[in-house]
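Lab notebook page, bench 4
Experiment: in silico fold of construct C2
Operator: M.H.
Input chain length: 450 residues
Purpose: comparison with the prior construct
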Amino acid sequence: MLYAIGTGMPSTNQKKPDADSDPEFTVNYKEDVEMNKPQVVSVKTRENVKKVEIAVLYPNGQAKMYRSRMRDGVGKVELTVPMPGKFLSSVAVYGSGGIKFLKDFSFTGSRPAELELEPGTRANSELEKIRNRVIKLPDNFHADAVRAWPNSTSYAQSLQNLTFSISDSYSDLKKGKLVRNKNVKIPSYIFGSGNFGTVFKITCDSGDYALKCFTRAAFDLAERYYFISSYLSGINLPMLVGFNYLPSAVRMISKPSQYYPVLRMDWIEGTSLNSYIEKNYNSSILMKRLADEFLNTMISLHEYGIAHGDLSGDNILVSDSGKLTLIDYDGMYVPPFSGRIAPEKGHEHFQHPARGNHYSEDLDNFSVLVIYLSLYGISRKPELWKYNDNDGDKLIFSSGDFLNPEDSAVIRDLKSIGGRTRKLAILLSQAAGMDPLWKGIEPIRIKGLR
């Protein structure tokens, strides 16, 4: 068997955590382990640490957290290897102030030489195949050449006459009906506005749709949505909305010769996360259930290498049954985008203070912790909702809390609750000083914090 020794030096995705105080932090593990035999991971450090945790992503997409106490700077964790394939793992060592050291590693589970490959099984998991799919633009790919985009008012005026405004290529929409928004005081056809566009509702014979009309867009808008839709095809992720990018779909009254692309999405009934909390924050049961539902949702996305890119109260809908749906995919990351820069930076009250053009599957890590801690904290202490201040652009945290965690009233309040809430608040404070893509707060690690 081959053995690998990790030096414990921090990766480029994180700030250096006390490395100088213990340069001899090591992680020992086998690079190849025969299926159904244990993988024993040994961790050693001279630091006064309390426990070690190892998060493991199995080849079949399932995730599991292992824990062990540290004694005299030494800890051992035995991992199960029930299947062949690649196991992605991360070691975290905890001291009194939170995570002291962090190291990522991977190993391979192999079949015994005497065993034949069972029908229907492969060494590489379906999840790994999906993440590594090669997606290319078709030769006949078409992207609209747009120099200047219409504003919301122009779209609203034109869409009131769908026979005129919708291209003949989309007959179902052309025969539909524009729906007025009855949930606003001033009469309007607009159901929502975001960083890149405005949303309208159209009822057609085939169903109800949300039509996102772009008021500005990244230069590679059409290409981005092609890659996103191609990657998501065939993946069952119920938290995402079905959508189609429609090139040359809508024209304006003021410029009938120019057609603009739109995004057609399945219409989802639900209330925004902020509105749901406002209505139910006094119910500890509903808030805890919502927190768990949110974290499990984000774990599933992360397993497929997907990041939403702009998690916020506006982009999360909650149904009456508590089911979550994520909307607005303009900033979404999928594996085919590896090496690119992010098209947007997201809502500041949900993002890492140092977020720039960072772009990877870990893009949501900080936002997930912000939202989960908000929901979990409210389930323990409903009065925390006072920090929202009737602001629809945040939950209980503001960007200033991330810049100066030690001076944050809401973080102090969360720490005073004690237990797991205190640990999560400490972890958030620590994460604010780390790299924006720090893997120490991956969703599965947040779930494993006890």
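Observations: Residues 1-21, 114-124 have pLDDT under 50 and may be disordered. The domain at 3-131 is CATH 2.60.40.2550 (Immunoglobulin-like).
Next step: discuss at group meeting.
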